[in-house]
Amino acid sequence: MIGKFSKSYYKSTDTLSYVERDGVDLPIVFLHGSGVSKEVFAKQFQSEALKNHRLIAVDLPGHGCSKNADDPKKTYSYSGLASEIRDFIVELNIKDCVLMGWSLGGQVALEMTDNTPQVSGVMTCGAAPAGNGPLGLIQSMHISKMLLLAGKAEFTEEDAKYFEKTCFGELTNQDFTEILQRTDKKMRPNISRSILYGFGVSQAARLKNATKPVCLLHGRDEGFIRTNYMENISNPMLYTGKTVFIENSGHASFLDAAPEFDAVLKEFTDTVDLEKIDLPSKLKMTG
Question: I want to staple 185 with a disulfide (CB 3.0 to 4.6 A). Which of 8, 39, 122, 153 is the partner?
């Protein structure tokens, strides 16, 4: 089982469902992957390493307990989801935070790197800053059944179980089968269409021009993102200057390697804390 949140953590805006735990240190906002929900991050809310941070995990539009988008074509794209999360951060009166996004959530977080004043830094897991269009997709990801499912409107129970097991292995016991089937049927096709047609600025370009710190984390046994693609990424604003790898870990490092993942997230968040100075030098020195 993934784990559970305290009932007192559950809250909502008019459109988005989220969980929040108080803390005195820099807030961390968690964004989940396609088709699942905020509950994937229950372990992080129980983490000793993150115990002093204010933690927030939100259901993206069309996922979990959040409402479906009123305008699917506009909302269900990296930029559209980023706009919704930007509004969410403002509504919660978050002045500074680190975004931690997994898979689709990582792509949304990358979209917000330099156009959201309240975001001090971005960390991703299982997400590649790829170029636009089909070529960018092929260069950064393995072509597989999972990629095909990522664009399917409605999941059968068999689809949901396959998707869940491939993402999480034996770490879940059909925890997300119903949630995967609940996902707005307009979400996956619109996201896939926006990626294939290369809407907006490529995320490779966003990373290249980043002026805020970014941490790319990759499980060495990742089955969806090409490891060689991640190995070849370097940038002065990257934490350690390159992708951080966790050995013996797959697509969901925050679950299958939670202690190592939490330690990296804690160190990165401390590094980008607004009280620290000379950020580029610190990023190069770390690790």
Answer: 153
